[in-house]
Amino acid sequence: MHVIEKVKNLRLKGLEQVGLDVVTSASESIMRQILTNAGYNGLEKVMAAKSFSRIPLGIDIDSGDPVDMWKLGVLDPLLGKDHGS
Q1: Residues near 78 by Cβ (< 8 Å), separated by ≥ 6?
Q2: pLDDT tens-digit profile of 5-20?
């Protein structure tokens, strides 16, 4: 979420700005939809996550509270996803 906010501050010209807006909106919508599917107001929870100052941040699906994912041991390492040959 913090990266999305930094990217939104970029000012490009013409269609590049439109493309940037589409990508940032789509990236944010993933978290919003997951939270909505969990029974929360997705927009409200995304806004709460944006205001959470620690990184890496997330929303605890059980409680709906913003949490520090690192402290909870929830990690998403690149090497775990690398399926290259």
Answers
A1: none
A2: 778 788 889 999 999 8
Cβ-count burial 31-53 (b if 16+ within 10 Å, e if not): bbeebeeeebebeebbebbbebe
CA 68/CA 71 separation, integer angstroms: 6
Compute the distance between CA of residue 78 and CA of residue 16 in angstroms, rounded to an integer.
28
Q: Which residues contact 49 (CB under 8 A, 6 or more apart)?
A: 1, 31, 57, 58, 59, 66
According to DSSP, residue 13 is labeled -
